[in-house]
Amino acid sequence: MEQTFLMVKPDGIQRNLTGEIINRFERKGFKLAGAKLMQITDELAKTHYGEHKDKPFFGELVEFITSGPVLAMVFEGENVILTARDMMGKTNPLEAAPGTIRGDYGMTVEKNIIHGSDSPESAEKEISLFFNSSEILDYSKQD
Ligand code: CMP
């Protein structure tokens, strides 16, 4: 089953939006397969956001994502990668449609509440960067 990496950023944690965000993905039908409340190190932030290292906002991005705890998660389900991106809305909350997570709660392009993998390749890379295989659980729903 397809899996994606989703992360509630420090602004989402501080604003107590964690439950709301998990709820949206669970109610859609996706299954939580891994979750970790953690403080990202400088090194992990730079690796995770490596593709942005030449962008002018890279320093601010690393500073922000390491400024407080994040909730790293693995969700799974059919087409979860693209569907989760649709549910998150556009990167800039000012452009994100109402009804999406960023459209409803995001404030700025930096404080945009949530990160989600944008392709199967980045999902695989990001999941293995944040989780050991033993931290991703395979369970079936009990009747
Ligand atoms: P994310 O999906 O986590 O991936 C890269 C992040 O860079 C993105 O969300 C934004 O939060 C951030 N970002 C993009 N553009 C800017 C910008 N102009 N200034 C600050 N942060 C940005």
TrEMBL record:
One of its GO terms (molecular function) is metal ion binding. InterPro entries: NDK-like_dom (IPR034907), NDK-like_dom_sf (IPR036850), Nucleoside_diP_kinase (IPR001564), Nucleoside_diP_kinase_AS (IPR023005). SMART domains: NDK. It is found in: Cytoplasm. PANTHER family: NUCLEOSIDE DIPHOSPHATE KINASE (PTHR11349). Belongs to the NDK family. This is Nucleoside diphosphate kinase. It is an enzyme of class 2 (transferase). (Microbial infection) Catalyzes the phosphorylation of dZDP to dZTP, when the bacterium is infected by a phage that produces the substrate for the synthesis of dZTP (2- amino-2'-deoxyadenosine 5'-triphosphate), which is then used by the phage as a DNA polymerase substrate. Gene3D superfamilies: Nucleoside diphosphate kinase-like domain (3.30.70.141). One of its GO terms (biological process) is UTP biosynthetic process. Pfam families: NDK. Residues 1-138 form the Nucleoside diphosphate kinase-like domain. It catalyses: a ribonucleoside 5'-diphosphate + ATP = a ribonucleoside 5'-triphosphate + ADP; a 2'-deoxyribonucleoside 5'-diphosphate + ATP = a 2'-deoxyribonucleoside 5'-triphosphate + ADP; dZDP + ATP = dZTP + ADP. Transmembrane segments: none annotated. The modification Phosphoserine is found at S122. Keywords: ATP-binding, Cytoplasm, Kinase, Magnesium, Metal-binding, Nucleotide metabolism, Nucleotide-binding, Phosphoprotein, Transferase. Its cofactor is Mg(2+). The modification Phosphothreonine is found at T91. The keyword Ribonucleoprotein does not apply. ATP binds at K9, F57, R85, T91, R102, N112. Homotetramer. The active site is at H115 (pros-phosphohistidine intermediate). Its EC number is 2.7.4.6. The keyword Metal-binding applies.
